């Protein structure tokens, strides 16, 4: 629900939204998927943990994980600082680009969270 | 905000993140609103003997103006709740968990009745409540009250009770009373009770009511619990009405009833709030608010005193592992007192999130998570609360004492509470604990958090007896990944309880 994806040449970059990082508070641990893993839309592929809570990451699209943001292992707070840019979680080669049509766009998401 | 034991509680306050608030408490001073906890007083000459029959500690041996952590057990030796008892010249002051409030109160009431009936002497128990309670009584009540709620009151039978709202204010109403008339009792936030009462009074059939005749009040023992009978130390809070208002109400009620206008009653309600002010700067700051010499108060000491003319109860205790105080103060004073504390630059408000991470670092149990009615004191590592003198030298001294005695003598029970340091992802409640080779499940995590002070993942949980040795390597499963962990002694973070110089 609170993941974002940006797609370029069939490869999507996935992270959690700024709204999500604000709700979680200080992030202390990030669990990312394995590079090479094949995942299906809405699979639980990782987790973001703060002092307050553990929050599972669900992939917004199906495909193969091509890389992960290795900086997060040592610097999970990067997500607090820039959730929607440098704090991305993983890149995924999409197996079905039509899945993108089911997602909310930026304006729809902002409406959902009341911004 | 988050739900907690039926209350909406602040998880943290906007100006500090949970982590910052946690650290702030370790370094400065934080205020926690813990009014949700059950506070009650036990009075009467046999109060200690009575409470002794329910808890594992020797209440009679608690020194005047000091407190003790103790436990209610069930017949099987399982822990029903943990509570703190402070002994005073004329009373025992008890604080127990919000989540167990009803259960605890039932437990106390049940045993109290039996105790008194058995001729063991005079004991009474009084709750200190946070909400105001008004009783609106008499045959016209339902018709009038119906204007204030969308609830169909005609569908409520005698003794039905529901949570609902009036004009956006959440209330609890029961179709009950102590008058023999139809009527309702309405529990409403104290800050709303005045305007709600004023609004009711706009109906011509409702006279601003007052206290019931003395003799019926005496019969209505239940209400006396919340009332004004005995409490010499807590300011009676007249549901937000001033003393002047209250006198007015009483005068008019008497006249109203005498004039044959029917049966109407109104009740005063006691309401104290409880705040925990925690952290190393606390004593220095609090000293400005009291003539009491705080340096003479040791950890777990408790006294009735006053601040700026307001009667308060303070204990040098808390739930963070830091030095600090818990302050019980009349609800109508708590906001201004808290605001006054917040004028000190080192004082911040703190919510449930840092409260949880702080108490875990200090190795303190949270009832319903780390201990419950299936856990015995021996298993929980709480045998230190048990009075060996009571258990060994007296015949069946308290509920559950048979099991406690047997387990003390045989080091019994099936499991032990342990501390864990976990590599990788933080282990939280429900994570399973396995043997070092990952093949055998040996226990479960009951609380865990990435420790803000220690920068490692700490957790507490239960493992099978015999596998609880400190230094043992184990595995903990987090999201189906086995992670290395080690059993360690608690507290994880050295506690800073105050010792007398």
UniProtKB/TrEMBL annotation, chain A:
PROSITE patterns: BIOTINYL_LIPOYL, LIPOYL
Cofactor(s) needed: (R)-lipoate
Family (UniProt): Belongs to the GcvH family.
Stored InterPro entries: 2-oxoA_DH_lipoyl-BS (IPR003016), Biotin_lipoyl (IPR000089), GCV_H (IPR002930), GCV_H/Fam206 (IPR033753), GCV_H_sub (IPR017453), Single_hybrid_motif (IPR011053)
UniProt-recorded name of the protein: Glycine cleavage system H protein
Alphabetic keyword roster: Lipoyl, Mitochondrion, Transit peptide
Domain of life: Eukaryota
Subunit structure: The glycine cleavage system is composed of four proteins: P, T, L and H.
CDD domains assigned to the protein according to its UniProt record, in alphabetical order: GCS_H
Pfam family, one: GCV_H
Subcellular location field: Mitochondrion
A GO CC annotation given for this chain: glycine cleavage complex
Gene3D superfamilies: 2.40.50.100
Any GO BP: glycine decarboxylation via glycine cleavage system
Ranges of residues in domain Lipoyl-binding: 11-93
Organism of this sequence: Smittium mucronatum
UniProt keyword annotation of Secreted present: no
Record function comment: The H protein shuttles the methylamine group of glycine from the P protein to the T protein.
Cofactor remark from the record: Binds 1 lipoyl cofactor covalently.
Residue numbers bearing the N6-lipoyllysine modification: 52
NCBIfam families per UniProt: gcvH, PRK01202.1
From TrEMBL, chain B:
Superkingdom classification of source: Eukaryota
The entry's keywords: Aminotransferase, Methyltransferase, Transferase
Keyword Transferase: yes
Cross-referenced Pfam families: GCV_T (PF01571), GCV_T_C (PF08669)
Domain GCVT N-terminal: 1-244, 245-390
Catalytic function, reaction form: N(6)-[(R)-S(8)-aminomethyldihydrolipoyl]-L-lysyl-[protein] + (6S)-5,6,7,8-tetrahydrofolate = N(6)-[(R)-dihydrolipoyl]-L-lysyl-[protein] + (6R)-5,10-methylene-5,6,7,8-tetrahydrofolate + NH4(+)
Any one Gene Ontology molecular-function term assigned to this protein's record: aminomethyltransferase activity
InterPro entries reported in the protein's UniProt record: GcvT/YgfZ/DmdA, GcvT/YgfZ_C, GcvT_C, GCVT_N, TrmE/GcvT-like
Domain named Aminomethyltransferase C-terminal: residues: 415-493
Binding-site residues, substrate: 185
SUPFAM superfamilies with a match to the protein in the record: Aminomethyltransferase beta-barrel domain, Folate-binding domain
GO cellular component terms attached to this protein's record: mitochondrion
GO biological process terms, semicolon-separated: methylation
EC category name: transferase
Family: Belongs to the GcvT family.
Record's protein name: aminomethyltransferase
């Amino acid at each position: 629900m609170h993941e974002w994806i940006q797609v370029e040449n069939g490869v999507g970059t996935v992270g959690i939204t700024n709204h999500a990082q604000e709700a979680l508070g200080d992030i202390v641990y990030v669990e990312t998927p394995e590079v090479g893993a094949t995942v299906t839309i809405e699979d639980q592929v990782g987790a973001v943990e703060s002092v307050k809570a553990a929050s599972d990451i669900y992939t917004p699209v199906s495909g193969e994980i091509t890389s992960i943001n290795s900086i997060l292992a040592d610097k999970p707070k990067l997500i607090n600082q820039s959730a929607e840019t440098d704090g991305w979680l993983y890149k995924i080669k999409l197996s079905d680009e039509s899945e993108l049509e089911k997602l909310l766009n930026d304006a729809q998401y902002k409406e959902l969270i009341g911004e | 905000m988050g739900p907690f034991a039926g209350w909406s509680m602040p998880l943290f306050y906007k100006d500090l993140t949970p982590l910052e608030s946690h650290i702030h408490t370790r370094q400065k001073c934080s205020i926690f609103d813990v009014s949700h906890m059950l506070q009650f007083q036990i009075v009467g000459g046999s109060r200690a003997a009575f409470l002794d029959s329910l808890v594992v500690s020797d209440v009679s041996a608690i020194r005047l103006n000091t407190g003790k952590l103790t436990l209610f057990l069930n017949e099987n030796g399982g822990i029903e709740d943990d509570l703190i008892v402070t002994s005073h010249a004329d009373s025992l002051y008890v604080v127990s968990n919000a989540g167990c409030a009803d259960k605890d109160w039932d437990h106390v009431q049940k045993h109290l009745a039996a105790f008194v009936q058995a001729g063991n002497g005079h004991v009474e128990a009084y709750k200190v409540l946070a909400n105001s309670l008004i009783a609106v009584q008499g045959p016209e009540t339902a018709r009038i009250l119906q204007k204030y709620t969308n609830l169909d009151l005609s569908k409520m039978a005698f003794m039905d009770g529901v949570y609902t709202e009036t004009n956006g204010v959440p209330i609890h109403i029961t179709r009950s009373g102590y008058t023999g008339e139809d009527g309702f009792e309405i529990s409403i936030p104290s800050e709303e009770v005045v305007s709600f009462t004023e609004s009711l009074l706009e109906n011509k059939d409702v006279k601003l009511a007052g206290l019931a005749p003395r003799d019926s009040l005496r019969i209505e023992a239940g209400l006396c619990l919340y009332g004004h009978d005995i409490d010499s130390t807590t300011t009676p809070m007249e549901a937000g009405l001033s003393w002047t208002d209250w006198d007015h109400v009483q005068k008019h009620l008497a006249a109203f009833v005498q004039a044959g206008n029917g049966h109407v009653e109104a009740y005063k309600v006691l309401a104290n709030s409880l705040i925990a002010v925690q952290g190393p700067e606390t004593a220095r700051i609090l000293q400005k608010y009291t003539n009491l010499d705080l340096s003479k108060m040791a950890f777990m000491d408790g006294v009735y005193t006053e601040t700026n003319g307001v009667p308060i109860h303070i204990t040098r205790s808390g739930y963070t592992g830091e030095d600090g105080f818990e302050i019980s103060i009349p609800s109508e004073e708590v906001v201004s007192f808290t605001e006054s504390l917040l004028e000190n630059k080192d004082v911040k408000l703190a919510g449930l999130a840092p409260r949880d991470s702080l108490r875990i670092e200090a190795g303190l149990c949270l009832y319903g998570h780390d201990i419950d009615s299936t856990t015995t004191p021996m298993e929980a590592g709480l045998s230190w609360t048990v009075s060996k003198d009571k258990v060994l030298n007296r015949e069946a001294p308290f509920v559950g004492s048979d099991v406690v005695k047997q387990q003390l003598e045989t080091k019994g029970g099936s499991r032990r509470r342990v501390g864990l340091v976990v590599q990788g992802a933080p282990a939280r409640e429900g994570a399973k604990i396995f043997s070092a080779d990952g093949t055998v499940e040996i226990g479960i995590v009951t609380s865990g958090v990435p420790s803000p002070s220690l920068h490692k993942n700490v957790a507490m949980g239960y493992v099978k007896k015999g596998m609880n040795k400190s230094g043992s390597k184990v595995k903990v499963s987090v999201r189906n990944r086995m992670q290395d962990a080690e059993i360690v002694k608690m507290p994880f973070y050295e506690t800073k309880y105050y010792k007398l110089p």
